[in-house]
Task: structure prediction
Amino acid sequence: MNVISLFYTAFAYVAIAIFLVGFLSRIIKYAKTPSPLNITLTPGPTTRAGAVYRVVQEVGVFKSLFYSNRIIWLGGYIMHLGLALVLIKHLRFFFTPAPASLAWITTFEAYAGFIFFVPLIFLFLLRLITDRTFYISLLTDYIILVLLMLIAATGILTKYYVRTDIIGVKEYIMGIVSFSPTAMPMDIIFITHFTLVMLLLIYFPFSKLMHAGGIFFSPTRTQVDEPREVRHVNPWAVKG
Amino acid sequence: MADITKEQLITSAPKKKEREPVPKLTGKIKTPKIVTGAASHYKCHVAKPEVQEKLGFPGELVDNWQEAAIRRMGELLEKYKSLQVYMDICVRCGACTDKCQFFLGTKDPKNMPVARAELFRKVYRRYFTREGKIFGKVAGAVDFDLELLAEWYTYFHQCSQCRRCSLYCPYGIDTAEISMAAREIMDSIGLGQKYVNEIIGKVYEIGNNLGMSGPALQNAIEFVEEEIEEDTGIPVKLPMDVEDAEVLLVTPSADFFASPHIESLVGYAKVFHQAGISWTLSSTASEAGNFGMFIGNYNAMQKIASRIKDAIYELRPKRLIVGECGHAWRVAYQFWNTLIGPFDTLNPKYPRPQHICEFTNDLIDKGALEIDKSANDEFVVTFHDSCNVARATRMGDKPGGQFDIPRELIKKVVNKYVDMPAETIREKTFCCGSGGGLLTDEIVDLRAKGAMPRMQALHSVMETHGVNFMALICAICKAQFTKIMPMYGVPMETAGGIHQLVGRALVLGAKE
Result:
């Protein structure tokens, strides 16, 4: 293995470790922090199953955002849809042979990257267009959008413009996953794409990207509207 | 260090000059262009040391306030999942930016929920996140200095904790939770708000928000009894401290004294009388309101609520019913069972606690009351959903009962009812503009602007349907609208309680 491969392989392991440890420790923190009171936003579900369904709707179709702002919903939802397609597509790098259950993704093969990329531009412009969103946008909000755009752009390049050696990439990734790393394909577009993704993984647990896990711990949405029927006990209350 | 001294921070509420003009009533709620600093001059009076100390807070801003505030913030982050999660997961998508009545009314961008929360979040990032500790300002992390503390004091007292933003947030981020935590932190370093903390002190010392002692309460009740007898010729009693009555009624103390609140008290009394259900008020639990919630102080909230627990123990009622009050109903519905429950001595056949609207509506359904709707024929009625009732409670068994039951009840006692525009009612309702401890005179201009969306919605049905009565089920809404409506050129008599309407339509002596 050459020096660049060695460096990148080490970098990848460090990035993945930071992501996993960071993400999980945030999630554990959210899970462990007590909820002293029932603060369900009403009208809300009166059963546990209902509360689960409520969260599923938020995660699955961004229900509240849909009723709140259709423009932001459109940009945000399509972007996440594109991201999901792209991620599913990438699963093929992790399995040999590629699972048959992923065959449907070939329908979106040609578009997935664009379904992800175009809404990112839209969301970036949206921040600039209205005075309210411009006012609330932080530097990091733009940085994350740009990072995602670069990842999407380099990803699209590897596929359509500067064909990357897919077989080589797959071997490299399988090597990392199976803890028997091999030399990485010396393709500048791929290496850039790979580097940016690793940077994203490192930044993820320390940023607003944690909304991906935090949404499952939002008490206004996860709690059940049953305070009269079921006594909610405050774990830290001193019993008088 | 900013060029503001501790003294300036505390005394910087400008002296009242002229009353500011209120927005013009057009029936339309428009999202304004932002005007930076437009609401920076609305400042609540700071609580005096003796008030603070009564509540167990430092009398004035402590010397090491920054360190103490950060410590308290750390404790709250450990204790409240809501706060911890909501600090991390906002993506600043912008969905909430046009949803707050205080932004719509004042145009100040710091009244956009996300910007209000950012005042808190940038301190959180600076002291509690790696991102903020390493990258500082670049990552939106800012030192907690006096200038920022002054902004906290200003803008966390321009939030009525109505939760409208939480409804529209894709993650349910609840600014009420954040503003409660901010106020708790400020109280813990000696910077409290005068209006709310004085009232909590009155509850501790005298037993209710208005500071009415036992004899004063007795006088008020006798006055109401005389009024009813004069009006109807029937001796309707308002029992006080009666043991073993069927129902203990806990209602906001404003119902004993303020107008139009007292008209609802008349209504409750007539309902109990006519239904033949024994009931009592309590001279020690003479307050349903609980301003402990507004300052996010768990101990204060529990201490205030415990008066009701004591009254249940002493008077042994079978049922617990809460009068017309929005935040009180939130505390009662969502928190009482945790704070002072379980209510094992109360009859499990009925909700514990029950809202007065649930109670009266059931009685009418059962045919226990005779109603003459024509007594309210002079009114075309609409209903304002109180923020806390709408988004933090329920009535009846089904989600949304908090919207349907009050409306059903109104329609049972009036002939002419019409709803305000759909985007301003039910869970989408706007706050009256004075909830969350903002019902204080020094910020009346802010309150008038916060009421703008509701006033526009009301104006539209006044124009199209001739509405002349807006039914309310909240003591704060009643006080706010009777004050604010005249500023908009709407008669203050337009605001009144649901049980005011019930009381008028109820035919006394019709059944036994």
Remarks:
- Chain B touches chain A through 71 residues (CB under 8 Å).
- Chain B has a mean pLDDT of 95.
